[in-house]
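Retry 2 of 3 after timeout on previous attempt. Resubmitting structure tokens to design endpoint.
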């Protein structure tokens, strides 16, 4: 059953519901959400999207008015949409060699988002892609010094 059918607009899922639905990538989901929450001292915001491209409940994280991205649960993986300001291009270009070939190519081919930056949709189904995403959000929102 599709995610948006399992949890329609009037039935908000929990973070546990989302992790359980993701199934095969549950450990990646739990690792990433824990990393964001603990590193940046932020909490998830569960929201509903009626967008025809990705309908259903999703998770957003923000810190100091900056969004980390939107996480979309899927069966055995999850997608993350992240928007990167064009002012971050030099820093992103600098980290491209440290990213997987696929993620670096995704960034190079990223579409324009309302003339303010690039948007990327990362499919998180491996530790490598999850680590790429952590590097990307560290460019956008450098982790606080502990």
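Retry 2 succeeded. Sequence:
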């Amino acid at each position: 059953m599709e995610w948006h059918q399992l949890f329609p607009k009037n039935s908000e899922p929990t973070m546990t519901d989302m992790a359980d639905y993701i199934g095969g990538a549950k450990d990646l989901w739990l690792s990433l959400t824990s990393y964001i929450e603990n590193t940046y001292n932020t909490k998830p915001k569960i929201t509903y999207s009626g967008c025809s491209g990705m309908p259903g409940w999703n998770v957003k994280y923000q810190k100091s008015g900056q969004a980390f991205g939107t996480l979309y649960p899927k069966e055995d993986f999850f997608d993350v949409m992240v928007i990167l300001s064009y002012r971050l291009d030099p820093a992103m270009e600098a980290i491209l060699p440290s990213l997987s070939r696929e993620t670096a190519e995704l960034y190079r081919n990223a579409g324009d988002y309302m003339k303010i930056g690039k948007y990327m949709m990362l499919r998180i189904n491996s530790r490598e892609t999850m680590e790429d995403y952590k590097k990307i959000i560290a460019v956008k929102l450098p982790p606080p010094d502990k």
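Attempt log closed. The mean pLDDT is 92.
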